[in-house]
Write a structure and sequence with these properties.
heterodimer, A: alpha/beta, five-stranded mixed sheet, 11 helices, elongated, B: mainly alpha, 5 helices
């Protein structure tokens, strides 16, 4: 039986008339590294805030470490590490004061962990938090989050604005946490190569709704890309099961299909294509196809290069 | 160890498959010899900066295919080569490799003799002391 550290049931949130999160039902297995992907404004932060009880849902329920999101106790909260999007720290505190302040809020505090992360990022314990660079501030937030040794880490776009070295340090810190099978990480990100390195589960939010929720390997296995060529200009495709994305590149139609089966090839051949061949898709391309507009269109590169046909 | 593993993200080949392919290839070419020890799952995951489950999955595949073997408490070692594919499957794989090789050679406009000669030279170089292997 799988043990889930986070669960939500039809979690929904409206801001005025705008639906920010639409009936999201998901479950995060213990010990997993769970990536939440989606474009800006797709509802990732709102979803995370609802799960952590920082925002009340319009409908639906959430549960973290067996406790309702609406009624998280201090004891449960102390087992969760949360890193916000902007790496918020109190600017007037010195690095060592941030540590003392944070340590007072948690029953457990591993100073060795704090110091090693702070050292890794080259932070001076006497430096004022407001004078830190973006990467240094991220390092400080990371150290503050890891030192209480939380069993669940929730990181909202932790790599935002970080340089490559700081990003790598962040990825290594996340991997170090996963060495313990009982610790779970949920993080949102736009950096798909980091996701490919660390994540074993993936959820994709597209315009407020959850469209993908599975193991990363299953995601890769269950999405296929075909290239169709036609004697003439490619036609507008009839409805095809599982069609996610199409684009026209140099007279060939590239189509991405979810859950392809033994009939998919025949369906594609029935569109009148001269050749139908399947190719491999990288993880980042699969995610981009999911998040792109589903209308059939030409690549922006081609469109820009072409003569305008309309005045 | 002369054997160096490298992975790249953003490839159409998943990371665990890249590890499997490289170990398999190194074992076949001899840059990994029978009995060589591979890094532990944790050490390799740390070096490649990837989730250790990814490395564990690759190692499991390699163990299943008989390329490496796990000796309890000692680590993971390159296994004695044994044929785990059927004759038909081996022929199919050889055909696929030959097709790719031939189409490239013909595009480059080499003659039949030149291709045969080049292949012969490669064979000599790849097989130690010219011993032909029959298994």
């Amino acid at each position: 039986m799988t043990d889930f550290v986070i669960r939500s049931q039809n979690l929904t949130r409206y801001f005025g008339r705008k639906c920010a999160v639409d009936q999201v039902t998901l479950s995060v297995p213990r010990g997993s590294v769970f990536a939440v992907l989606g474009r800006n404004g797709s509802g990732k932060t709102t979803l995370i805030r609802m799960l952590l009880g920082l925002l009340s849902p319009s409908r639906g329920t959430g549960e973290v470490l067996g406790c309702s999101s609406a009624a998280l106790t201090a004891a449960v909260r102390s087992r969760i590490g949360y890193m916000t999007e902007s790496h918020f720290v109190y600017g007037w505190m010195r690095v060592r004061e941030c540590a003392a302040f944070q340590a007072g809020c948690f029953p457990r505090w591993n100073a060795k962990v704090f110091n090693s992360v702070v050292d890794y990022f080259g932070l001076d314990a006497e430096a004022k938090a407001k004078n830190l660079s973006r990467g240094e501030r991220a390092g400080l937030s990371l150290a503050l989050m890891l030192a209480p040794e939380p069993e669940l880490l929730v990181l909202d776009d932790p790599a935002l604005g970080l340089d490559p070295v700081a990003r790598r340090a962040l990825v290594e810190a996340m991997l170090a946490v996963t060495a313990d099978k009982d610790r779970t990480i949920l993080f949102s990100s736009h950096l798909l190569d980091d996701v490919e390195r660390v994540a074993d589960h993936v959820a994709i939010l597209d315009r407020s709704a959850l469209r993908v929720h599975c193991a990363v390997d299953d995601f890769r296995d269950r999405i296929g890309r075909w290239i169709l060529t036609y004697a003439d200009h490619p036609p507008v495709l009839p409805p095809i099961r599982g069609l996610i994305y199409t684009s026209v590149i140099d007279q060939a139609l590239h189509v991405t299909i979810a859950n392809p089966d033994e009939r998919t090839q025949a369906e594609l051949e029935a569109t009148g294509a001269a050749t139908v061949s399947r190719t491999q898709l990288s993880l980042d391309q699969a995610v981009i196809d999911y998040l792109s507009d589903r209308r059939q269109r030409t690549s922006l590169l081609t469109a820009v290069a072409q003569e305008p046909t309309l005045a | 160890m002369a054997f160096d593993l490298n992975i790249s993200t953003g490839s159409s080949v998943p990371i665990f498959r890249q590890i499997v392919d490289q170990v398999r290839c190194a074992a076949a070419h001899g840059s990994l010899a029978v009995g060589d020890r591979l890094p532990s799952v944790r050490a390799l995951a740390e070096r490649l900066v990837v989730n250790h489950n990814t490395v564990a999955k690759a190692y499991n595949d390699l163990i299943r295919d008989g390329v490496i073997e796990s000796r309890h408490g000692l680590g993971v070692f390159v296994a004695k080569r044994r044929s785990i594919f059927t004759k038909a499957e081996r022929t199919r794989r050889l055909d696929a490799a030959l097709d790719a090789f031939l189409s490239e050679a013909l595009v480059l406009e080499f003659s039949n003799e030149e291709i045969q000669l080049a292949l012969e030279r490669k064979l000599q170089a790849a097989l130690p002391s010219g011993a032909a292997s029959h298994d």
